[in-house]
Specification:
11 helices, globular
């Protein structure tokens, strides 16, 4: 039972990160029907920028509280990622808005590769460790252990997801986003600034990606220029699992994928008689993606995609 609870905690923490990244995919797809494969690299950029700021502050003012240092790094990483997301939308995607769907997809892959190489040129190929600035307390829960970092990730992820739901459901921007997702042409005729709504969607998704990047680097204790590629693929799998284009589906898919991956890593050795180890945990995301595409392409919550003229 203690192993089960430990994997449950690990899965919820990991799934909450996947959910934040998956929200960026599903928001953009819901409005543009575009898979922004550069979104994982924006997550990586958020982690790298935050770590650069944290490292600089640790050298310049070693006596600052760790929470303040982390908050400063995150506060600078978010606008950098937002600006990057807006730049990508304006330069790479907006000119191709009326092009065949294959064109923006190829462009998204190209932007992803460019961002990876830019990060490699700036920060190098080495892994960058996350400084030990956060409280390292651990708490026992029915035989399982949960750290202060895991608690902070869970609480922050829940707060962000609830805030996003309120924004989409209760604000003027949220109504404009929902109208644009239904029909860009009709929304434009009703006075909605479609370009502004799409840019705002990229900005919100990029801000979520920055937070998720810092969460991942804090959780695993390191960052790398290539970290966004696999994380992005898993988050995309989570969005498809829940129903891409559906905010609730992205959250559900992220949590489920984190649980599947965590329980798979914990029990795969027993299930295969020791033939496979926990290092095979990454394959579960793609098994899930294949299974969903085969048996339920619309995802668990069945978001219906409207064919637009």
């Amino acid at each position: 039972m203690d192993i089960f609870l430990q994997q449950l905690i690990n899965g919820l923490v990991l799934g909450s990160v996947y959910a934040l990244v998956a929200l960026g995919y599903t928001m953009v797809y819901g409005i543009l029907e575009l898979i922004n494969f550069a979104h994982g690299e924006i997550t990586m950029m958020g982690a790298m920028v935050a770590l650069a700021v944290i490292g600089a502050l640790a050298l310049a003012a070693p006596g600052l509280p760790g929470v303040l240092v982390l908050g400063t790094g995150l506060a600078l990483a978010i606008p950098v990622c937002v600006a990057l997301g807006l730049l990508i939308e304006r330069v790479a995607y907006r000119p191709l808005r009326h092009a065949p769907r294959l064109a923006p997809l190829i462009t998204a892959i190209g932007v992803s590769i460019i961002l990876q190489n830019v990060a490699m040129l700036i920060w190098g190929k080495q892994y960058i460790p996350f400084p030990a600035i956060l409280p390292q307390g651990r708490h026992e829960v029915l035989g399982a252990t949960i750290s202060d970092t895991q608690i902070a990730i869970l609480l922050l992820a829940v707060l962000i997801m609830l805030t996003l739901i309120l924004v989409v459901q209760k604000t003027r921007l949220g109504r404009a986003m929902r109208a644009t997702a239904q029909s860009r042409q009709v929304a434009s005729l009703m006075g909605v600034d479609v370009n502004r709504v799409i840019a705002s969607t990229f900005a919100i998704g990029s801000a979520l990606a920055a937070v998720a990047g810092v969460m991942v680097s804090a959780y695993y204790g390191l960052a790398h220029y290539y970290m966004g590629f696999l994380l992005g693929l898993k988050a995309f799998s989570a969005a498809v699992l829940g129903g891409i284009g559906n905010l609730g589906g992205a959250m559900l898919g992220g949590l489920l994928l984190g649980l599947i991956e965590s329980f798979g890593a914990g029990y795969i050795g027993d299930l295969t008689g020791g033939f496979l180890g926990s290092n095979y945990q990454d394959v579960f995301a793609f098994f899930v993606l294949i299974a969903v595409l085969v048996f339920r392409p619309s995802g668990l919550l069945g978001a219906r995609v409207v064919e637009r003229a």
